[in-house]
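re: the backbone from monday

yeah here it is again, tokenized this time
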């Protein structure tokens, strides 16, 4: 993906506030061999770009001052309740240096798995992204996870996923984390009057002695 950034000369809380009022978002680009650069972006264009999964997990082409460089999105600061991006950070990408990036997991085949289709379980996606280490050229946009063989009470671990060439998973001490599990769903019956029906015990309760 490609986006356009502009050089930002003024810093400070007041300058950033004026930028946001003018429909701009302040940001910074750091890393690599160059010095940190203060930038600003069009807020509306940035807001729509942030809705794309690739903007968060793939290498981006940033046009700045007539030159294009490759960067990764590193941090986004959002307003607590307004649809407003307060600040954004990017890191320069160096071709020969490995990097740590969180890559989305795309789960395939859940609805066709025995757990969901036959046993009416729900696929519980324990992890939705995976931190990986790789060179920029090997960075995948996402990692596909096949869960079509998931069974009742079963799980799918990281060890069952074939990672792309040159990509290493970073698990922070967990040898083989669970990515998805099959969870049973409790069914509650409701009477026509809107009352929750009591579960059947399988045997009738004894009648009280008549006086």
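seq for it, each position gets an aa:
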């Amino acid at each position: 993906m490609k986006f356009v950034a502009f050089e930002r000369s003024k810093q400070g809380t007041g300058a950033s506030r004026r930028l946001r009022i003018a429909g701009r978002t302040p940001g910074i680009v750091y890393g690599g061999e160059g010095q940190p650069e203060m930038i600003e972006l069009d807020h509306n264009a940035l807001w729509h770009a942030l809705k794309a999964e690739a903007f968060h997990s793939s290498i981006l082409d940033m046009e700045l001052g007539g030159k294009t460089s490759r960067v990764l999105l590193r941090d986004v600061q959002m307003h607590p309740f307004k649809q407003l991006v307060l600040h954004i950070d990017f890191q320069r990408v160096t071709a020969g240096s490995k990097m740590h990036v969180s890559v989305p997991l795309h789960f395939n085949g859940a609805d066709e798995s025995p757990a969901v289709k036959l046993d009416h379980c729900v696929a519980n996606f324990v992890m939705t992204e995976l931190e990986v280490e790789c060179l920029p050229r090997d960075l995948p946009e996402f990692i596909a996870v096949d869960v079509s063989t998931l069974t009742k009470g079963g799980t799918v671990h990281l060890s069952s996923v074939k990672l792309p060439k040159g990509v290493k998973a970073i698990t922070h001490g967990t040898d083989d984390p669970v990515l998805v599990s099959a969870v049973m769903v409790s069914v509650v019956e409701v009477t026509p009057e809107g009352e929750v029906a009591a579960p059947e015990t399988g045997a009738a309760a004894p009648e009280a002695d008549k006086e």
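The helical segments are 13-21, 43-49, 53-57, 114-117. Residues 13-21 form the longest helix (9 residues).
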